Amino acid sequence: MRCAGDIFAYLEACAPLAWAESWDSAGFLVGDLAHSYDRCVVAIDLTPALLSYENTLFIVHHPPIFKKGLEHVLAGSLIYEMIKRGNGVLAMHTNFDRAFIPYQVAEALGFQPCGRILDGLSLGLTPGIGYGIWGECEAQSSELVSQAVSKLFGLSALSVYGDPKRLVSRIAFAAGSVGSMIPQDGCDLFIGGEIGYHQALAASHRNMTVFGLGHTESECFFIDTLVSWLKAYGVQADAYRVKPHVRSFYVTV
Ligand SMILES: [Zn+2]
């Protein structure tokens, strides 16, 4: 397999680290850039279940440790055990979120993409960077959209805030922890991963319907996208997925 440094440089060209948030620790976290690992595994999170691997380059969405914390890698910690097994860890986090445009969501939900979402601001077009996607479609009930969302993300349930019968035509989607991205106005339906109860409730009071899919559930396209990016570079990567959580369905009007 190609060395970790080549893979890192390739992925950095796909999703520049300069696009990562200042607080983020995206990048090559531990390992040897000159080394050719036996295999690549793509996952959302580094978990103890992955300790069965040795000499493996993990490409994860969430940084398992912040860079300044690497000065204090303690025996017994997950990252310490990864290093002991000769594994490398590379995180593609907010740089990926900004580089990746989830057209699959727009296509599946039948809306025409118009732009990206700026954190903490109202909806607006951005020149290539920003989060998620927003667009417009023919008016349909949010209940109908929820069925398409469940199918697309493989969910058995999702949280709905607002009247499911209400018609929506301007839809926004962003993956991950995105409560701060709910716009003040300008969209009828906001679909996100992890959203605080009070944030969603406040949005529903502004006549906006909000769907909460779950944090990792909303990020399912990370794995497929990274695997396809790596394949295009001639690197075969394995996908490590966890099943979506099963939650109860509730509606807050
Ligand atoms: Zn996340």
Note down, in words, how this protein is organized.
It is built from eight helices and twelve strands. The chain is α/β, with parallel strands linked by helices and 253 residues long. It folds into two domains: 4-96 and 220-240, NIF3 (NGG1p interacting factor 3)-like (Udp-n-acetylmuramoylalanyl-d-glutamate--2,6- Diaminopimelate Ligase, Chain: A, domain 1, 3-Layer(aba) Sandwich); 100-218, NIF3 (NGG1p interacting factor 3)-like (Udp-n-acetylmuramoylalanyl-d-glutamate--2,6- Diaminopimelate Ligase, Chain: A, domain 1). The strands form two sheets. Strands 5-6-8-9-10-7-12 form a seven-stranded mixed beta sheet. Strand 9, helix 6 and strand 10 form a beta-alpha-beta unit. The protein is elongated and about 55 Å long. The N and C termini lie far apart (53 Å). Zinc ion binds at residues 61-62, 176-177, 215, 219.
Q: Summarize this, please?
A:
By secondary structure, the protein is α/β, with parallel strands linked by helices.
What features would you highlight for this structure?
2 domains; 253 residues; Udp-n-acetylmuramoylalanyl-d-glutamate--2,6- Diaminopimelate Ligase, Chain: A, domain 1; seven-stranded mixed beta sheet; five-stranded mixed beta sheet; single chain
Question: Secondary-structure blueprint of this entry?
Answer:
Elements: H1 4-14, E1 27-30, E2 39-43, E3 56-60, H2 78-84, E4 88-91, H3 94-99, H4 103-109, E5 112-117, E6 131-141, H5 142-153, E7 159-161, E8 167-177, E9 189-194, H6 197-205, E10 209-212, H7 215-218, H8 220-232, E11 237-240, E12 251-252
Parallel strand pairs: 2-3, 2-11, 3-4, 7-12, 8-9, 9-10
Antiparallel strand pairs: 1-4, 5-6, 6-8, 7-10
The structure holds zinc ion (ZN).
